[in-house]
Design a protein that fits this description.
By secondary structure, the chain is an alpha/beta fold. The chain contains 12 helices and 14 strands. Strands 2-10-9-8-7-3-4 form a 7-stranded mixed beta sheet, sandwiched between helices. The protein starts with 27 loop residues before the first strand and ends in a 14-residue tail after the last helix. Helix 1 (42-56) runs antiparallel to helix 9. The structure holds pyridoxal-5'-phosphate. Residues 33, 101-103, 127, 176, 181, 209, 211, 239, 241, 246, 251 line the site of pyridoxal-5'-phosphate.
């Protein structure tokens, strides 16, 4: 057999480490941002795909079905109405760029604004992929602590003043203000106004990542930073991953033309998939508004099962806030629990969790925390998975000292 070619010497310095081969999902999967399988509106999506393909399928012969590099226009027009209605954003279809998931927005905004050594400000506990991206670019990250109402404005003001005193001009404040990942906090309107005031005072751009904003239980959300900003220094991103399904890979970005026009040349994929966009536009206009309440209800029921299971199995050892929306619970365990080790031990028993250290700029603060996605496991899997997690945690760390007297049927 011939020796395989060694690509190693060709890989540029500073490339990410090699990927680990995917070995399948854990039996009890509490990781990732996956959604509730029962709530994917499959029949209506089939009907929407069929109708749109029958009507416009031949347009697939042209890149972007001839709607241009910003994506399928009827979907952008749906978003114009939706964003006005629930986030207060006044924009036109020309201000919207359709993307392959809002992940692509993270890459585009970073590519447009950041270079090695730049400073960015963000919530201390944060979306792992955002933190990884900042690290790869070589950005300096200033993490701002959160309380139960999200990013603390006194700490943001102090961080901005500190940067200024050191002669550092931060490029942007990246924030997930509406159902934050991982804390599920919602930044109230007065804090939003203060964040914008500070951003203007210090001449910093704001990057608003709003992908969970459709998942607030009572459907009421504060206006988007984008809507409140007078300085037009905000870039807003959103996604259909959390409201419909992540495997669709459809997200979007809203931005003023001076910065949108700098990001478009960086989107070098010749357009995001048009079939998904056509199907979504067809589906969303008649169905989106009625789909959401059903999804929120299902997610709320799941988090109730999770909180109940944690209370039964961990008792006071697991601390968390009852979230107002979303798909995650950010849980604090006693200080002696290292959730990275807990993650490794639990995985061997078929339970996957996200260890806190991967979701925070502050390793000491996050080492005993974990993020639990409750959307994709079933109610039975939530109960069984949490029971196993408590057993593993007790074996490894001696906590919880004892669990509630609950019957377990772990197959
Ligand atoms: C805060 C945040 N931003 C962006 C994304 C990217 O999502 P997608 O690319 O599926 O739209 C996620 C996914 O979990 C997220 O949690």
């Amino acid at each position: 057999m011939s020796q395989s070619f060694d690509f190693g010497p060709l890989i540029p310095a500073g490339s990410p480490p090699p990927a680990v081969r995917w070995t399948g999902l854990a039996k009890y999967n509490f990781t990732g941002g996956n959604n509730d399988a029962d709530e994917v509106p499959v029949d209506d999506l089939i009907a929407a795909a069929t109708a749109s393909l029958k009507r416009e399928g031949r347009n697939l012969a042209t890149y972007n079905v001839a709607h241009g590099p910003q994506g399928y226009r009827p979907l952008r027009e749906f978003l114009v109405t939706k964003l006005k209605g629930d986030a207060g954003i006044a924009c036109s279809a020309d201000d919207i760029l359709m993307l392959s998931g809002s992940s692509q927005a993270l890459d585009l905004v970073n590519a447009a604004l950041l270079t090695r050594g730049d400073t960015v400000i963000c919530e201390k506990d944060n979306y792992q992929s955002t933190l990884t991206r900042f690290a790869r670019i070589g950005a300096k990250v200033v993490g701002i602590p959160l309380d139960k109402d999200g990013m603390r404005m006194d700490a943001l003001a102090a961080a901005l003043a500190d940067c200024k005193s050191r002669g550092v001009q931060p490029k942007m404040i990246y924030t997930i203000p509406t159902v934050q990942n991982p804390t599920a906090t919602i930044l109230p309107e007065p804090r939003r106004a203060e964040l914008l005031r500070l951003s203007e005072q210090y001449g910093v751009a704001v990057f608003e990542d709003d992908c969970y904003s459709d998942l607030i239980w009572d459907g009421r959300r504060p206006p988007a930073l984008y809507a409140m900003s007078e300085a037009q220094n905000v870039i807003h991103i959103g996604s259909f991953s959390k409201s419909i399904a992540p495997a669709l890979r459809v997200g979007f970005l809203v931005a003023p033309w001076p910065i949108l026009s700098r990001m478009l040349p960086l989107k070098t994929d010749a357009g995001s998939g048009s079939v998904e966009q056509m199907m979504l536009a067809e589906y969303c206009v008649p169905h989106f508004a009625t789909h959401l309440p059903a999804l929120r209800k299902a997610l709320r029921a799941k988090v109730e099962t999770l909180m109940e299971a944690l209370n039964e199995q961990f008792g006071t050892a697991a601390e968390f806030e009852d979230p107002k929306g979303g798909i995650f619970l950010w849980v604090k365990l006693p200080d002696n629990v290292d959730t990275m080790k807990l993650y490794q031990a639990a995985l061997k028993e078929g339970v996957a969790i996200n260890p806190g250290n991967e979701w925070s700029t502050d390793k000491a603060h996050s080492a005993s925390r974990l993020r639990i996605c409750f959307a994709s496991p079933t109610h039975a899997q939530i109960r069984e998975g949490v029971a196993i997690l408590a057993d593993v945690c007790r074996r490894e760390f001696g906590v919880p000292a004892r669990s509630g007297n609950v019957e377990r049927r772990v197959s």
